[in-house]
Amino acid sequence: MSNNSRTALAVAGLSLGTALNPLNSSMIAVALVVLRADFGLDVAAVTWVVTSFYLASAAGQPVMGRLADRFGPRRMFQLGMALVTVTCALAPLAPSFALLCVARAVMALGTATAYPSAVVMVGAVAHRANVEPARPLGRLQMANTSAAAVGPVVGGLLVSLVGWEALFLVNVPLALAALLMVRRAAPPDEARERGSVAELLRDSDIPGILTFVGALLLVMMAALDVAPGYRWWLLAAGTVIAVLFAWRELRFNRPFLDLRLLGRNRPLMLVYVAFAVFSSVYYFVFFGLPQLLQEAGGYDPGVVGLLMLPLAAMSVVATPWAVKAMGRFGVRRVLLAGVLLLTAVAALMWLLTGTLAIPLVVVMTALMGVPYGTVGIATNQGMFVSARPQERGVAAGIYQTCRYVGAITATVMIGVFAAGGVGQENWARMVLAMLVLCVVTFGVSLFWRQHTVAGPAPCGRFRAMLA
Asked: Please, what is the Cα angle at 49 between 45 and 55, to 5 degrees?
């Protein structure tokens, strides 16, 4: 193979692998109603198939990044794709919903190896091709964004034509293709630091990961009232474990989540809070609207997937526009404009309490795609300019965790507001909750100020990534 062909194949394989995590996080949105019917679940119970994936992703990405540093990114990428292949081939045979959630969590761990491993490999790929790393990084970013956006469309068609089992089976050829392409074309791993298993466990901050996941699980169980009569005990236990998590992370040299970074960087902390709350609003629509259309509107999952397509299209259109606007008006103005538009669209979602006519739904999903693309890229840029160059890797990991926390929050709140099913009356309460979250996002964004750090011009870097 020529050098150019090898580089193109390597980037394609890395992009395909990194796309599996956002693709699987979004495809499930149109299968929730079908899963409820097949397993006899309510809305609160079915949210665990979503939250199990996000919890595993939130905990897995930083850990997999450290494993890639130690054992080699190419090796870890292939291991992750192999894990996805085996898990997704067996998942449709799961005899219970609990095992299905376990399969989703294992799949999330496998897909979580892809992005950190790909980011590490990009440097070697770019060096071999004699190009700037920003270009292959841009391909990875676009693969992530596009996969998350088209997920409901793909998921809707698969569920409609085959069933929810297809959401797992479709990953088998995709993961195998990514594994073989990277094995064929990616540069071999360099010599990596080797250590004992005890040292690896110590450096991975396993206690920090366990307390993080434990605190989230207990708070979620309290919010969903999975153990009637013990809600306040669960909430209290979750709070205590959260305090222990913060104490542990502040004392550990290589923490799972670097809370000290947030403490000494107020602009970065504000970006994280704004992005987490914004993600809650977005995933309210992302997971709530498909259920509303299927239950209250009676639409087929395939139709629902197509109705979500305008969201994907408009988010792709809005992203490069927002990049150009940031170069002209600055990150803060574009961020505030995006949040204001998000608030207006959330308010317009109230119209769906009166009718679920297809033209109105298409307009609503298209409008939601604009603030999704705008606020998403603006907060990403805000994170980039707020972090010091030597801390941007850690900062990017925490940024992804904020996305997962926002998604988990949205799914839990949907379960609270609509435990018996998502109808138009419940949707009205969800719209009110979205508006409150929009106000919080705007307030946090209003306090953010760009923190100039040394390094290449951020907007120019983003333009290069999108080129």
From this structure: 110
Rg (CA), the chain: 21
Would you tell me how many other CB atoms lie within 10 Å of the CB of residue 297? 18
191 phi/psi in degrees, rounded to 5: -60, 130
Helices marked H in 300-423? 301-307, 309-329, 331-348, 358-386, 392-417
Nearest to 460 by CA among 324, 322, 267: 324
The pLDDT assigned to 394 comes to: 63
Residue 249's nearest CA partner among 198, 205, 200, 199 is: 205
Q: Give alpha helix (H) positions in 91-230.
A: 97-112, 114-129, 134-161, 166-169, 171-185, 197-203, 206-224
pLDDT of residue 133: 63
Closest CA to 378 of 439, 312, 441, 325: 325
371: exposed, middle or buried (C-beta count within 10 Å: 0-12, 13-18, 19+)? buried
Residue 352, C-beta contacts closer than 8 angstroms, at least 6 positions apart: 289, 292, 360, 361, 364, 424, 427
Return the ∠ at Cα 125 (arms to 122 and 130), rounded to 5°: 120
Q: Distance between the two ends of the chain, CA-based, in angstroms?
A: 25
Contacts (Cβ under 8 Å, ≥6 apart) of 311: 149, 152, 365, 366, 368, 369, 372
User: Which pLDDT value is given to residue 138?
Assistant: 65
Tokens, residue 264? 């000494």
pLDDT of residue 467: 45
| Cα four-point dihedral sign 279, 281, 285, 291 | positive
Q: How is 264-277 classified by DSSP, letter by letter?
A: T-HHHHHHHHHHHH
The whole-number mean pLDDT for each consecutive block of 10 residues of the chain, a chain of 467 residues, reads 75 90 86 88 82 82 73 88 95 90 91 83 75 68 75 86 92 95 85 60 73 80 71 86 86 74 80 92 88 89 85 82 86 93 95 93 93 86 76 69 84 81 87 95 89 49 47
> How many Cα atoms sit within 13 Å of 419 on the Cβ side?
5
3-state class (DSSP) for residue 261: helix
Half-sphere exposure of 423 (CA within 13 A, CB side): 4
State whether residue 254 is helix, strand or coil.
Answer: coil
